Amino acid sequence: MSRRFSCGFPVKLITDDQIICFFTQTGGCQHVTFDEESKLYNCTFYQLDDFKLYEGYYFDVREVKFTLTEPVSIKFLNHLVVRDKVSADEWRMAKVHLQVMISIYSPAMAHNWVHFVFPTTVATYAPKVAKPNAVLTDLLRPHRRFTEQLNYEVLDPSTLEFAMPTVALPFSKQEFRDYIAKECDTYYNQVGQVFPSPIISRNGLDKFPYVRQMKDYYDVILKFVEKMIPYIDEEEFYRFRSLIAESVKCAADAEMKDLLATYIWQVTVIHSLDHAAMYEFYRRMLTFTSMKIQMPYVPYSNTEYWTLFAKERGVPLTWVKSNPEKYMLTDADIGDSFVLIECFMEYIPDMFGDDSGLSQINYHFKDKSLSQFQEEFKKDLNALNDAHMAERDFKGNKVHLHGLEKIAQSIRD
């Protein structure tokens, strides 16, 4: 399908402001840390060392440093590019590599914990442990719909190697599966307590619109779940928790309210807004981008390399330096990325009266008190949405995160 579209994509080079937007207003901040001494934010990509790329593909970016308003430097395997110490041409070329890294980072490396292990475990065991008419069953039912099936389909080894979504990635499906397993094992069994995700309390990240809004949603969900606790059978929950702990070790010590609130928050808010924000960033801001690049990072000081590069493309080197993204990325790679983004990131509502959004949630509680709690929950969600939609970023621009209408009740894409 992507080859059909390979006819000259109008790819745009990422701007400095868009780099900051990616790390502060999307799930791209999952591995970001803040250094108190330098007052700089840092995101590393050394996870890429785990991947064996197809021949001819490269991922040379390993680290980016930035402030709340501008990028500072991009570190490559054997080179450091500091924005204020290099020419504009050199910075533009370095940003092409960073743009590719940013494009693959969220779908391949920063979002897997949201989908796998914990959500799948809950979706698998909830109907086996809780009684059909139990409050725990009613509470989790709308949030586990689709989750198990969709997660499996993406990783199903019986599907074609070059089927979506892995056709857009420069490594095999098995490489992807192995990485997901390793990353999720690290997150769920080595990080410590993840109920909720430690990202919402990580030092320095409270200034990021993404982190702040995610925490706001968690607080609203936790408030709702706390009202449910007296109505949930403790013995039933403990059996449920012990099964989850077989795959998620830290679940063994998790409190009921934290485990249940985290699950609901993760499969609704985090999953939906990660997808919506990524789609908005890749398609609306960048228009077109690529998750692959078929050349290593080579500084312009290597005149022999770049002279030959321009000659092979039949253009002056000055053209390459002015618009490096047009010559460093291929139509086929951009096309593959375009298809993945269109098929797997955007929220697609049901065309026949969509009622799968969190704002339309109906738990079908039998107890009137619980039904009242449900309505209060929906009211709190709408009030929070109004506050978020009025928020502005560090430069006074509207924060581009999507509103409540983009949040589904479960993992559905």
Describe the protein's topology.
Layout: H1 16-25, E1 32-35, E2 40-44, E3 61-66, E4 71-76, E5 80-82, H2 88-110, H3 112-115, H4 118-129, H5 135-144, H6 147-155, H7 173-189, H8 209-228, H9 234-244, H10 256-285, H11 303-313, H12 317-322, H13 324-328, H14 331-344, H15 368-389
Antiparallel strand pairs: 1-2, 2-3, 3-4, 4-5
Helix pairs in contact: 1-10, 4-5, 4-9, 8-10, 8-15, 10-14
As laid out across the biggest beta sheet, the strand order is 1-2-3-4-5
Rg (CA only) = 22 Å
By helix and strand content, what is the structural category?
mainly alpha
Q: What level of helicity do the residues show?
A: 40-55%
In the CATH scheme, the class of the largest domain would be: Mainly Alpha
Uncertain stretches of 5 or more adjacent residues: 1-7
What overall form do the CA principal axes indicate? elongated
Please count the helical segments: 15
Q: Overall mean pLDDT score?
A: 88
What is the assigned CATH homologous superfamily of the largest domain?
A: Lipoxygenase-1, Domain 5
Total DSSP E strands: 5
Give the termini separation: 19 Å
Strand content: 5-15%
- Could you give a short account of the major beta sheet? 5 strands, antiparallel
CATH topology of the largest domain: Lipoxygenase-1, domain 5
User: Number of folding domains?
Assistant: 2
> Architecture of the largest domain, according to CATH?
Up-down Bundle
Q: SSE string, helix = H, strand = E?
A: HEEEEEHHHHHHHHHHHHHH
